[in-house]
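Contributing: when you submit paired examples, paste them exactly as shown. First protein:
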Amino acid sequence: MKTLFAKKNEVERKWYVVDASDLVLGRLATRIAAYLRGKHKAIFTPHVDTGDFVVVVNAGKVRLTGRKLDQKVYYRHSNYPGGLRAETAKNLLERRPEQVLVNAVHGMLPKNRLGRQMIKKLKVYSGPEHPHVAQQPETISFQ
């Protein structure tokens, strides 16, 4: 028996659409991260990007459990002295709802070149419309 490794040019990529309405942020992010990595496929190889494209709609309607809306804080730094900015999840969800989901999924991907390549396959939109109809995405439900 030989172990088969997926090659970069042999991977077939599909498109999926996920409706994030009333889904819990962390549970949704783990499922999306698995699809971006390709863990749902039989040809999954850890050092090759075997994942698919994921389009998330209604990201503004995602749920956070407990008191995370007020207590969870997102930090970013401008790389200038005194450039640390902090923002609560509630403010970020009102201002840029897509960014909350992108941050959650990005934290669940590998922290290397491969992870940066995988996050580019995630397309997040706050409303119900998306411009990827030409790719004929398949709808998946994470209920």
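Second protein:
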Amino acid sequence: MFTLKMDDSSYLFSAPQGPMGENHVIPPVVHHRLQNGMILYVVEHHKLPVVCLHMIIKNGAETDPLGKEGITKLTMEGLLLGTGKRSEEEISLALDSLGAVMVSEAGWDAGWIKLQGLSEDLDALLEIVCDIVLQPTFPSDAFLLLKERRLGALRNKQQDLSQVAGEAFESLLFKDTPYGHPPDGTMASVESSSVEDLRSHYSKIIHPSKMAMAIVGDVHAEEVAEKIRHLFEQGDGAAPEEGREKISLPEPSGRNVHLFLRPGFTQCQIRMGHLGISRNYPSYHAAKVMNYILGGGGFSSRLMEEIRVKRGYTYGISSRFKARKHPGPFIISTFTTPELAPEVVNRILDTIEGYRETGATEEELEAAQGFYVGSFPLGLETPSKIAGRVLETELYGLGLSSLYEFKDRIRAVRLEHILQTASSCLRPRDTIIAVMGDLEKSIQAWESIGTVHVVQDKEHLPAD
């Protein structure tokens, strides 16, 4: 039994005692559901006199309207621009006076607020969080400065070939879907965004029924719950529009090579892959172990062995599943010279085909399992990490038991599971290949790999 019922809206969750006591990586978690739908998790962690608060808004960049890409991230950052009680400067001064640090941001599946300070200042910290989340004003002058900072960051990003190549790949893979744009938007979409857009989007995505909070630190769970109820359990009001529960994500068909011509670069960036898995994919743990062996395990991975160690084609290569609420990308990332790039891609494809046919060895399986089992406690060693992992289970509907079962599920992966997931989750014959660099002289060499699309990379992203 994992849960001990307390009442209709809360329960205590603690792991059963394992033979070595190893399941007690996380202290007991107290869970509450407020009347307005807000979720609260509290973990007492008394090692240091600090407290960490994480809050998620269960609407992320996938809710960005067409033409306003990046608006969710702007909205989350805009929460810190001012409220009915405090200006942006006063928020900053209040946090500084408490020695606290706060960030507000957004990813694909959620907006995040992260705050850390001394546990003795919890009342003041909670009041600040409540103020910025429920009473933001989005002042026009402060928004214009925020917008300029974002545009400056986007201009700088365009000079980072590695980052732009990754975004180009995902734009090709997810084109015409809610995942088909960068979470921070584009120059055009941010330039067109107004403070009225921010205020409108806030009303659509932020509501207590879409909020979940985790508080971890030197606190007492029931006292914290009462404070949260007092601050956040206000009238229900109108719930925001639901996020996209269903997204149609088409699979790539055949091999499509997209060459982004960037003259003058001595190296080129390669991103290749296809649709991957969601975070609640039934064989998620087997897929993690399978990918560790292929390209997620650093120098112990097959791709590193084949591409760097044996041939010296690159200094680094990796593969990963970027699992999200909906299936995210499976992506292989590397870099090399323009002349070697076609050969590198061919060797990658051959390595994947061989892996799909033969699976892993017992030694590879043991190494991958050892890594995940051994490193798992490191991901839970601080209040901030615990808060993040607890809210991950909430966001993706995994259940708190998934934290305590993680190591057992990794240990349960067998060689036949590796073979099955490699066969079902790796599709080298139906893949998108995005290459960015000085490729004018090598276009013909790519034609033997797949259908070639040449992009004159003026905007550094695929054209509409």
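If you have annotations for the second protein, write them as plain sentences, like these:
The two ends are 53 Å apart (CA to CA).
The chain is about 40% helix and 20% strand.
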